Structure formats: C-alpha cells, structure tokens
Amino acid sequence: MRLQAEGRVRSIGVANFHAHHIERIVAETGVTPVVNQVELHPWLPQAELRAFDAARGIRTEAWSPLARGRILGEPVLDRLAAAHGRTPAQIVLRWHLQLGNIVIPKASSAARIRENLDVFDFELGADDLAVIATFETGERTGRDPDFD
C-alpha cells in the first residue's frame, strides 16, 4: 500500500486469499485488491470465491491452471480435445478463459508457449462446459491457505 501511495505501483494483488481473508484486509486497510491469485482448475473451480471476487471488482487469476499437469490425464479431456482439434491443455485453458479467469500457464518450451496461446479461435459449447464441471472434486495440488 505504501508503494501504491508513492505512485510506484498502480494496483495491489493478493495470492491464496479466501473470502474471509479479503474481508479482513479490506476491513483493516480500506484497500480492495484488484487481483486474487488462487489455485484454480477443473478439480477446484472455486465458483463461490470467483463470485465473491467478481462482486467486489476483483479479478481471479488461476495458479496451477492445469493442476500441475495432472488434470491432463482425464480421458474426457482427450475426447473434447479430439472433437475440437486441440490438445487437452488447450481445452482446459479455454475453459478458464470462458469462466473469466486470468490464466498464465507455465510452459517448458517455446512450442508449448505457442500451443498455450492458440486458444482464442474456438469456444467450448455449453455441453463441453457441463462435462468439465463434473470434474470438481475439491482436490488441491497445493496447500489450503487456511492451513499454511
């Protein structure tokens, strides 16, 4: 907040904040962050938190958007990828975009970066989104912020 007051940064973001963490920071400082980066992928879509953030003008950014690559083993993603002429990773990244998430996937090569960027010329249909919604298990690949 000091850096923002000094004009050195324009925006303040947080990472791994649940709704109650955001409520506390706003109550104690009067500052609402503009972005909340949280673990978010089809196993952990965090719908309630995304809605909470959106209601306060906070953008939600997904970290571990591919569940550290583990989600890519879902056979349903293979079928969706084949139907769209894409890779399973591209299907998941497109899902994020259609939910309104900020998504910046990690990539191991220039080819993977290009592949990750090639998600803006197709859309998943309502049936595709409904199928991906069935993946929700609440499984985390990282720690729960309440227990760190």
TrEMBL record:
Sorted alphabetically, which Pfam families does this protein's record hold?
Aldo_ket_red
Q: Which UniProt keywords apply?
A: NADP, Oxidoreductase
Q: Which Gene3D superfamilies match?
A: NADP-dependent oxidoreductase domain
- Mind telling me which SUPFAM superfamilies this protein's record contains? NAD(P)-linked oxidoreductase (SSF51430)
- Domain (NADP-dependent oxidoreductase) ranges: 3-132
Q: Does the keyword NADP apply?
A: yes
- Parts forming coiled coils: none
Q: Which family does it belong to?
A: Belongs to the aldo/keto reductase family.
Q: What is this protein called?
A: NADP-dependent oxidoreductase domain-containing protein
The protein's organism comes out as: Agromyces neolithicus
Its lineage opens with: Bacteria, Bacillati, Actinomycetota, Actinomycetes, Micrococcales
